[in-house]
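Hi R.,

Here's the chain you asked about this morning:
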Amino acid sequence: MLYKSRSFSSCILTAYQLMSKNLWNLIKATWIPVLLWAVLVGVLLALNLPNEEVVAMGTAHFALYIGFLVGCVLGAVVASIWALSRLMSVLNEESRRWNFGRALWLTLNSIVIFIVIGLVIVAVAYAMSRLGGARLAHLAGNHFWLFLASVAVAIFVLCLLLLPLEYVAMKYLNERGMRFWNDLLPTYRVGLRRVSFIFITCFISGLITLILASIVMLPYFILTSAYYTSLMGYIMGDPSDLPGYFFVLFVLTTVVVYFLLWYVASFSTIVMYFMYGSIEKRREEQRTARLEEQVPPALPTTEMTDIPPINLQS
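And the predicted structure, written out as tokens:
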């Protein structure tokens, strides 16, 4: 049941129970886009490794190489949107077509929002450097820890201001009547009033996801570390000790790791789903309480049996 008042721990526990009981149905509904996304990410990460053959190919066919990279990036984005829409179809029981449209527009609108936020941050930083660059340099040089603490506080405040967008996104993915830009500010204000609940829910679920992701990512970290260790020795004149099939092994391992990683990350999405339902239920309860307060109390009525009999005898 989605619309139920829950604590942050109840949201996390319910998400775990839903995912553990319906894991096979979740995989069956999402494995094709998730596998496509994992393959494209694996290819991109493999091509980003410093490699003489890859560098030579990119230099000889620069336009083709850049076009291939751009195609992989766009394909990975589309695959992630497809996977998200399939996940939401499992959760909200809406049609796959409707969920894909919502996931697509949410992704595009989110990109626009974060570009605007990034431009605002750059503009503020530039204005501060122009107006008080000398003071900032003096503060950073003579009071480094104070400067670092100020930057940390600014980043924390920015993260708090961005947290209500989690509620906005989940509401947009579930409610047919919501229009993103028309309802953005009212929905954001609702999320901002409940930012403490959103913060603790995101923090705990994110911490759990981070721990699980670190375990899942271990094979990728091991292979990457081995590659760069061998590369450093090769630069210093030692022969490469990597097997000839290392590149293929790296791609296959990365695909498997990122395939599993998507399902680890989907746990946080399901937690946000129940967090949204809890907020909506609490809003409904508050509206009901206000309406009950506005209704005047009923006047006392006198039953016929309470009227004393009239003595007609004189």
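The chain is about 80% helix and 0% strand.

Let me know if you need anything else.
M.
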